[in-house]
Amino acid sequence: MLGVSVSGESSQNDSWTKIVKMLQHQHCGSSMTGLIPFSRLLLPNMRKLGVFPLFMDLLVILCYLGVGIPSVAGKYPLEKRQTKVIYRNPGEYFALNKETGAYLNIENKPESKVANVGEDTNFVCMPNSLELKKFEIKWKHNDVILNLTNTEKYKTNELKTNITIKSVTFQDAGVYTCMVILDMDMKMSKANLTVKGVPDPPVDVKFVTCPSGRAEISWSPGNDNGFRISAYFIQYNSSHNPSLWRTYEEPIKPALNNYYMDLRPWGKYSIRMLAENKLGLSKPSLPTKKTCSAPSKHPDRNPKEVWTRTDQTGKLIIQWTTMIRFYHHGPNFKYRVSWQRRGSTFWNSQDVEDSERGELQVDVDEVYTPYNIKVRAVNAMGDSPQPPFVFVGYSGEGRPLNRPKDFRVDPHFEMQPHEVHFIWEAVNMSERQVQGEFKGYKLQYWKASEGRSEMKEVDIYVSRNSNERGDHRHHRSHHRGQDIRATVTNLPAYTAMRAQVCVMNTHFVGHPSNIANFHTPEGKPGPVQNLRIESYGVTFALLKWQQPNEPNGKLLGYDIGYQSVDSNKADGKIELLKPQIDNPTTLGARITGLKRDHNYRFYVWARTKAGKGANSVVNVKTMYTYLNGTQYQTSNGMPRSNPSSAIRTGLKSYILIILTQLFTIFAMVFQVFQ
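Predicted structure:
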């Protein structure tokens, strides 16, 4: 229990004032107030004599003796109407409830915690008077009251008996104090928060010596922040690219505080360091104030990736991955490119002076011929001592010389409205005939009425090592013996078509085969267009539409169906209306015999020899009454294809009313002019 401390001059002044106020609260009389200024004159002497606590006890005794009630069990006297008595422990005062014998206390005190950076942690401070709910709880961090309204950082419950600190940082470490205040009494309890995290970066990083590109580095370790440092890492940059920091290959043992490292030739370097523990890497240290230079040497490597490009006939195009300046190791860096036709003993060479250029083009007479190629790095200090790898490349491809034969529609399959099967003889796949790397075939097709200007193509890939290829979006292909079979889909139905096939390599397509003519059969039509309700009444609806964009055959007519609809949901199966429309030029229908004030959904299908196509849908709600207010009933409540007499009668009545109103208006106007 931490109540009102009385140690120290400032705390004595504060405690004195608080005790006097507490005595007043216990009905000891307002005369106590006069003791406050008097006591401040006595405080310096009482402090020197060490009698301040005794003086406080004396005041308490005098207060309660003044009411004339004898003491109980050696405690201070207490008036009967009082509910609290003030007790003093050494350096402490607290209030005791007379009726229950209980005093304010913190039963569950906050416990010290250890948390890693980024974690959440919490403290609990539970007083013993929760049922009163009159106490106030405040929290301090390093003697500063916390702003618990900052919900991004802190989370508390309603009574503030629990506080959660979100995503702790090193700044959150320290002493947390819970203060419970009830009337004039107050209790405090403290706990520590220790925050652990990645280490601080090393400090005082510097070059000790720097002879001929071998540098000695020293540093001092930073704070490990709760976990032992497991390794150090060196990062370095160069003057030609100071924003790029590279990590040295080897980690450094934590017991060391100096290290020797080899620097790349032909550079001026700065370094920085990082420390690592079980939670991760520290931030980088400050870079060294001084730089260390390394002298030039010949390159220690050659370009790793070398290849040829084959998209230009009559060219040998050699390409490679260029080397960045970091690996040049000296001035006047260049590439020495060599090539040799396979089977020849003579090597050709040419230097490429531009270090950022990764291509050399050479004119050749051969089409798709293999060559041995290699690229070596060279600078002013000499050639790279590493022998370059020899790669195999090819000169440019050409147009395939062979063409497929006997291209035709496959008679083994029935032609479908949107699908056709082809067959043709396989070609010689040798590089000499294909003039490149054989990839397969390119199948071309178009509508006979449009010509090749609207030609479409699908690629049919055939492997040398596999007799069957997987499905393509528009085709399937099979290689059986000397025949190639392919299926092309998504064709237009009921259309005269033409097709041809060509051999293809990586970049070129050969001469086409003979043309195959065919006519796709009829298919089901697409949906009718622009289906709408032109007009409607109590018992009828007039539908209008346009022909499908894709008839896919010869249109025979249209089918119409309907459903009752409840809250935009179809109710029951679709009922087909009869008779159906057998004239494809009829683009509307008047549906009669409908129920008044009722929701309907109408369906319209176009029809060919292959059947009904996709439907189009429109909704309508019939009227409740005619315009003149007269109500009518249908004969049987079922839709019919002919207008009913009720409709004609209603229309005549409506016209008669209008004529009567017009006659009345003319009569009134005539009387005015008379």
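Summary: The radius of gyration is 50 Å.
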